[in-house]
Amino acid sequence: MTVIELDQNNFEEIVENGKTPVIVDFWAGWCMPCKMMAPIFKELSEDYKGKLKFAKLNTDQNKNISDNFSIRGIPCLILFHKAEEVERIVGFAPKEVLKQKIDSALSKV
Fold this sequence. Notes:
Layout (H helix, E strand, L loop, with lengths): L3 E3 L4 H6 L5 E6 L4 H16 L5 E6 L4 H6 L7 E6 L2 E7 L4 H12 L3
Parallel strand pairs: 1-3, 2-3
Antiparallel strand pairs: 2-4, 4-5
């Protein structure tokens, strides 16, 4: 599955107006834990194909959106459903830990 690149132009359409839950990776190019998370995030996008959309938002290039969600530490994964935040995972985590947290969050929607 393709990981969607978010910005000011498509954030509302994909995250706030979408019918499918979306998990957004708030990241920055200078962040080493973000770089470590990237391949895991891509792998997970394959595991949840059809159940969950995966998207990335560069916090340096989209400061307004990052500020709106009070992003203070990255990587920060936020799972949204119908424009509401369901779960927030801050910091690097291995794939199995992320899967458990995502499964738990999806059980709430």
